Amino acid sequence: MTETSSKGVLKLTTVMFLFVGLVGIWIGGCQTPEQKVEKLISKLQHKNPKVRQTAAVALTNIGKDAVPALIQALQDGSRGIRASAAGVLGQIGAGAVDASPALIKTLQNPEVRWHAEGALAKIGKGAVPVLIQALQDPEVRQYATRVLAKIGEDAIDAVPALIQTLQDPEEIVRVSAAEALGSIGKDAVDAIPALVQALQDGVANVRSNAAEALAK
Predict the structure, then answer these.
(1) Helix (H) or strand (E) holding 197
(2) Model pTM?
(3) Of 84, 99, 116, 189, which has the fewest beta carbons less than 10 angstroms from its beta carbon?
(4) pLDDT at position 37, please?
(5) For the chain, percent helix, then strand, then coil, each to nearest 5?
């Protein structure tokens, strides 16, 4: 093959690579926002941790527009996808408030419960109404009280419900309720009589959490 022919082949190969690359970019650019989000979600279970991290960051940056697809991902058959979806919702924070009911439901799943609790805590005040409702659900009330404790002062609207929860038959729920009231702090003044009564609880952790709450 002559030098001229070699150069011709090289140029042709270069042009082909550029063409394929441009087609790929064009196809990517033709994706709808929903398709882009779904593609990123699928990468949350990629074997390469850097790819997973990049996808999570991208979804977080998309923010509220990614929430509907992330809510669906909470029902995915893959534990990794469910956990990562909850984690991203937490990173989005208050903008993911619409995911609160789905995250409450996810509290029933021990495989991803910790991630759901963290997400609800980061959503914060916007999640409080559904957390108050969850205090009536024996399946998740224990975890709902823990989340309210993490939210702290912004959970002030939950004070009346937490006062009632101090009478719960489950000791772990009473422990968390006293802790949550303590986290809310001085704004939980209406809970003082109930906390004083909790000092007589038969469970030491309830008594200690009640005492700490009263000290605040």
Answers:
(1) helix 192-198
(2) 0.80
(3) 189
(4) 81
(5) 85, 0, 15
